[in-house]
Amino acid sequence: MRHRPAHPPLEERELELETVACDLCGGTETRERYRKPDSRRWVSLYEFPVVECVRCGLVYVNPRPTPAGMAPFYDEGYHDGRDTRKYLRRYARQLAFLPELDAQKLLDIGCARGDFLAYALSKHPRLQVHGVDAYSSGVSDERIRFTGKALPECGFAEASFDIVTSWAVFEHLHQPSRYFEEVRRILRPGGL
Q: How far apart (Å, rounded) are the C-alpha atoms in residues 122 and 127?
C-alpha cells in the first residue's frame, strides 16, 4: 500500500527548489538523463529532473528541494513501521556487514527512529549507540543518544566513533562530500 498525504500534492511553484553545481567536481553544465515524479509519497506531482554532470558524470537531482524544502517529504508517521518483520530481516543483513561487535561507539547517519540501532543493541547490549537524523523528532529507544540535525551540524569531537553507518541515506543528502569529510574527521583511526 502506498502512502498518500492527507493534503493535496504540492504544486511546482509551492516547492522550495534550488539549482546546484555538481558536488563531486563543481561543474555546472549538465544534461538531463530522465525525470522522476515522487511516485512513493506523492507529496508533489512535480517531475524531478535527474541530470548528469558533463564534466565528471555524477548523476543527481537538479533542481532539487532545498534543505528546508525537504520537510514536507517527511510528514508525521514517515518513519513508522520500521520495526516490522521485513525491516528486522533487513537490520540483520546490515548488522552482518559490520565487524564483530562488543562495546564500540557506533553512529548511524539518517537513523530515522533508531530502529536499526535498537536492533543492534538487542544483539550487542554493550554498544554505545548514537543516531542523527535531520527529519526525525526522536528515537524509539532511550538507550540511543539522538541528535536531530544533519551530521555536519552536530559538532561531534574528532575521532569519536569506532563505526559510522548510513543505510540508504547518502542519495538523499545535500552536499554528500561534506558528510564524507565529517565522517573522516569523527571516525577513529582504524575505524569502519
A: 10
Angle between helices 115-123 and 85-96 (to 10 degrees): 60
Report how far residue 98's alpha carbon sits from residue 128's, in angstroms, rounded to the nearest whole number. 15
For 119-169, the pLDDT digits (tens) are: 999 999 999 999 999 888 889 899 999 999 999 999 999 999 999 999 977
Of residues 84, 79, 86, 85, the one with CA closest to residue 108: 79
pLDDT tens per residue across span 20-65: 999 999 999 999 999 988 876 677 788 899 999 999 999 998 998 8
SS3 assignment, position 60:
strand
pTM beyond 0.85, yes or no: no
Q: How far apart are alpha carbons 4 and 39 in whole angstroms?
A: 10
> Distance of CA 65 to CAs 17, 69, 176, Å?
4, 5, 15
Task: Transcribe 98-122 into DSSP letters.
Answer: S---SS-EEEEET-TTSHHHHHHHH
